């Protein structure tokens, strides 16, 4: 039956596509993507404390992945919320939920013999949305153009069909015998298939992008889900949706896979550069802090400044790093040394590791 965007696409073919051929162009881009991912993974493996820098990279990924869904927050709002969740805007809460979902999905996968299963996907979307959503079980889901209301795509319906499609996708993800293809090409297939199945009422895009990160960890291509892939998709958002539609409407796998491999190349390079720059900045900041604070220098304080770039006095007590008076003295000295910049927001004064913020926000 011919594809009709107005009817539920219950005939989505299972993976892998039978007629897919790797062109020379794809193989060249695949080699580049593998090389740069390997470099990024090697760098992450060499970090003495990977969580210190990786947490901030993952927060940037959360911010950009949410922005693709038009959930937009400023860096100020976001990092203020990491320090003080009581001040979080609705958008900042959704971004923080995405980060929580990524970690929850990773823990769930690793607790299930490293298998990426439907129940992992459900847990991810529930954490993203902070509700008890499950597989769609009512008809009527249609994706429309936000400007003119035109139907773009009608995903499969209903729960029995969706579970059947997800079971086939599970097999493709987890069974190495299901396909001999390179994992990076498989990742592009998996991402399209999940988005086409569209198993949830909301949160599919963000869940799909978390699955990308988890799959790279599952395949041991990255030790941590640190790839800032959404930064590329935000930049080329129109093309992202065009290429997804190109597969659905014209079976154009070539251009979709080239898009995803190019995203991997650019974002692996970007993530590597950011982590290297953050390491240099941390080293430089440590030297300046030792000059400024002398014998009262604290590694716990340095760690905190690179985990939470927005500091406030109460945080030192909460984290049991220092009493209020010591914290106040530290912040005053670090401000005088131009290591931190104070910013009054409402009644609270935040002390910002502004060089780290500049680094995080430039691509």
Quickly describe the structure.
The chain has 363 residues and is mainly α. The protein is 63% helix and 5% strand. It is built from 15 helices and five strands.
Question: What would you call the shape?
Answer: elongated
> What do we call the CATH homologous superfamily of the largest domain?
Fido-like domain
In CATH, the topology of the largest domain is named Fic-like fold
Strand and helix order:
HHHHHEEHHHHHHHEHHEEH
Q: Estimate what percentage of residues fall within beta strands.
A: under 5%
Please bin the fraction of helical residues.
55-70%
How many strand units? 5
CATH architecture of the largest domain: Orthogonal Bundle
Please tell me the overall pLDDT: 91
Our Rg estimate from Cα atoms comes to 22 Å
Structural category is mainly alpha
Major β-sheet profile: 3 strands, antiparallel
Strand order of the largest sheet: 3-5-4
Low-confidence stretches: none
Distance between the termini: 45 Å
For the record, the CATH class of the largest domain is Mainly Alpha
Total count of helical runs of at least 4 residues? 15
Number of domains: 2
How would you describe what is shown here?
The protein is mainly alpha-helical and 363 residues long. It folds into 2 domains: 24-274, Fido-like domain (Fic-like fold), CATH 1.10.3290; 278-361, Winged helix-like DNA-binding domain superfamily/Winged helix DNA-binding domain (Arc Repressor Mutant, subunit A), CATH 1.10.10.10. It has helices spanning 24-46, 50-68, 75-83, 90-110, 118-129, 159-174, 183-197, 204-218, 230-235, 237-250, 253-293, 299-307, 313-318, 324-336, 354-361; strands at residues 143-144, 151-153, 310-311, 341-345, 348-352. Strands 3-5-4 form a 3-stranded antiparallel β-sheet. A two-stranded antiparallel sheet has the order 1-2. The protein is elongated. The relative contact order is 0.14. The mean pLDDT is 91.
């Amino acid at each position: 039956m011919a594809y009709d965007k107005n009817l539920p696409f219950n005939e989505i073919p299972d993976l892998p596509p039978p007629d897919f051929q790797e062109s020379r162009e794809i193989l060249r881009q695949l080699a580049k993507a593998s090389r740069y991912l390997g470099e990024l993974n090697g760098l992450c493996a060499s970090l003495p404390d990977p969580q210190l820098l990786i947490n901030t990279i993952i927060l940037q990924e959360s911010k950009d992945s949410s922005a693709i869904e038009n959930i937009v927050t400023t860096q100020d709002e976001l990092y203020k919320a990491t320090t003080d969740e009581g001040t979080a805007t609705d958008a900042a809460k959704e971004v923080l939920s995405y980060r929580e979902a990524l970690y929850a999905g990773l823990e769930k996968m690793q607790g299930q013999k490293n298998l990426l299963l439907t129940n992992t996907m459900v847990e991810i979307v529930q954490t993203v949305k902070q509700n008890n959503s499950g597989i769609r079980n009512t008809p009527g889901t249609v994706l429309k153009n936000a400007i003119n209301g035109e139907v773009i795509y009608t995903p499969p319906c209903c729960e029995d069909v969706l579970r059947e499609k997800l079971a086939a996708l599970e097999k493709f993800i987890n069974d190495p015998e299901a396909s001999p293809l390179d994992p990076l090409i498989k990742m592009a297939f998996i991402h399209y298939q999940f988005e086409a199945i569209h198993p949830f009422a909301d949160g599919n895009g963000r869940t799909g992008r978390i699955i990308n990160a988890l799959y790279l960890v599952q395949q041991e291509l990255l030790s941590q889900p640190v790839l800032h892939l959404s930064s590329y998709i935000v930049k080329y958002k129109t093309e992202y949706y065009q290429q997804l539609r190109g597969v659905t409407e014209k079976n154009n796998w070539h251009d979709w896979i080239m898009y995803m491999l190019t995203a991997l190349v650019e974002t692996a390079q970007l993530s590597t550069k950011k982590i290297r720059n953050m390491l240099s900045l941390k080293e430089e900041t440590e030297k300046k802090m030792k000059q400024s604070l002398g014998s009262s220098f604290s590694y716990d304080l340095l760690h905190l400044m690179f985990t939470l770039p927005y500091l406030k006095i109460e945080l030192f007590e909460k984290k049991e790093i220092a009493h209020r008076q010591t914290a106040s003295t530290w912040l005053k000295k670090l401000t005088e040394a131009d290591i931190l910049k104070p910013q009054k927001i409402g009644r609270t004064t935040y002390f910002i590791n502004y060089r780290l913020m500049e680094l995080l926000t430039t691509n």
